């Protein structure tokens, strides 16, 4: 069985074709500048790039080009679209409706539309991508895999905000969390690596990249996560501020004479390590600036590491201990200095990092010492494979 995994943004589309017989990616690609001048598709197969530059006015144009690239005689990986058994779609927000992935039908599409108010930047392009695929592949099963679904197992004490309860009833204001597919994948994978049932483990997973979140996973279930009603809450990120005193919002609005929308933009797109450092939202640029003696860049990274460390401590307390800490995503997988900085000071929990083991990038590896009672791992995330596995399971059950 071959599964096409699709992740649509407002003007972009990421995709992978995965052979489920071996759980390996046959092709992966990115379509950029959909509806904008300079549209381009870049597909990689065995490290070789296949590039197509041509106008794409809509996501349906982009999907059509993706399918053509996959079957292209020289650079493609399948002979016809009939080899694609199903399509798995990454959908950011499923609200409280979905605690697991689902086969897409009219009822699901209606629920996704209702969730647009909860994810106005993300759900609309996700819906557009689904509709584009349905138009071109009307007889192919489609599955929605939600970023929020994994965190639906949180207890109410973890997901409720101390606001008037009517706001939850009327507007669904509560913690939803994001990155659920990544947290689920790495927690399941680390359990396989240590050879223990995930139902017997307490795990803190740290998805650290331009967008970042931590999750507390107890007995295979998410019991808390750092992102909240939106992806803005929690850790300091590339351009997002993370946790702040909510009274800062009206204060800034008045002091700087800003609209609510302008404050939202400031917190989401002008803050985080970018706002603190004044350098960049890219952690590689921040690290480079630190090497050149930039004190604000150092401060930005220190604040970021400190916030991650606090969440690890908080989630260890919430679960009554932890067995495993997992680093994943761009920074978590590739920055030995950040992993070491986050774990420094956690010796009281039983965390000891082996600097020699930790000196690498982008691999699956144990980085704690032999006598560390809490084991620390780096597990590269694979959200696409998780989406493909969910899709296969649902289609197999049809």
Automatic annotation (TrEMBL):
Q: By its UniProt entry, which Pfam families does this protein fall under?
A: Acetate_kinase (PF00871)
Which residues hold Mg(2+)? 7, 383
Q: Where substrate is bound, by residue?
A: 90
Subcellular location as annotated: Cytoplasm
Q: What is this protein called?
A: Acetate kinase
One Gene Ontology cellular component annotation held by this UniProt entry: cytoplasm
Task: Enumerate the residues marked as the site Transition state stabilizer.
Answer: 179, 240
| Subunit comment | Homodimer.
Q: Which NCBIfam families match?
A: ackA
Q: Note the HAMAP family from the entry.
A: Acetate_kinase (MF_00020)
Q: Which cofactor does it need?
A: Mg(2+); Mn(2+)
Q: Which family does it belong to?
A: Belongs to the acetokinase family.
């Amino acid at each position: 069985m071959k599964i096409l995994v699709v992740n649509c943004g407002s003007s972009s589309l990421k995709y992978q074709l995965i052979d489920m017989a071996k759980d390996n990616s046959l092709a992966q690609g990115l379509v950029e500048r959909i509806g904008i001048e300079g549209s381009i598709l870049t597909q990689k197969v065995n490290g070789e790039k296949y590039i197509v530059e041509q106008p794409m006015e809509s996501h349906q144009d982009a999907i059509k080009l993706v399918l053509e690239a996959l079957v292209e005689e020289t650079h493609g990986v399948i002979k016809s679209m009939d080899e694609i058994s199903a399509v798995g779609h990454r959908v950011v927000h499923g609200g409280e409706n979905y605690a697991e992935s689902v086969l897409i039908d009219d009822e699901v599409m209606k629920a996704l539309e209702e969730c647009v108010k909860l994810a106005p930047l993300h759900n609309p392009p996700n819906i557009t991508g689904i509709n584009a695929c349905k138009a071109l592949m009307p007889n192919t099963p489609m599955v929605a895999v939600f970023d929020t679904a994994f965190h639906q197992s949180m207890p109410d004490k973890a997901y409720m905000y101390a606001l008037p309860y009517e706001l939850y009833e009327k507007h669904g204001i509560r913690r939803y969390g994001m990155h659920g597919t990544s947290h689920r994948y790495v927690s399941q994978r680390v359990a396989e690596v240590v050879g223990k049932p995930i139902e017997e483990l307490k795990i803190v997973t740290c998805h650290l990249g331009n967008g970042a979140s931590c999750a507390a996973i107890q007995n295979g279930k998410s019991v808390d996560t750092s992102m909240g009603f939106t992806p803005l809450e929690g850790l300091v990120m590339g351009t997002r501020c993370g946790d702040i005193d909510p009274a800062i919002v009206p204060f800034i609005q008045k002091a700087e004479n800003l609209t609510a929308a302008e404050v939202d933009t400031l917190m989401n797109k002008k803050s985080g390590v970018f706002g603190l450092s004044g350098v960049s939202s890219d952690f590689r640029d921040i690290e480079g600036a630190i090497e050149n003696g930039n004190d604000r860049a150092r401060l930005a990274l220190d604040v970021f590491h400190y916030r991650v460390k606090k969440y690890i401590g908080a989630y260890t307390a919430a679960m009554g201990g932890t067995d495993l800490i997992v680093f994943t995503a761009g920074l978590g997988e590739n920055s030995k200095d950040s992993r070491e900085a986050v774990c420094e000071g956690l010796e009281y929990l039983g965390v000891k990092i082996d600097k020699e083991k930790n000196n690498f990038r982008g691999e699956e590896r144990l980085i704690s010492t032999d006598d560390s009672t809490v084991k620390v791992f780096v597990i590269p995330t694979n959200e696409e494979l998780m989406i493909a596995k969910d899709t296969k399971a649902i289609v197999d059950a049809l």
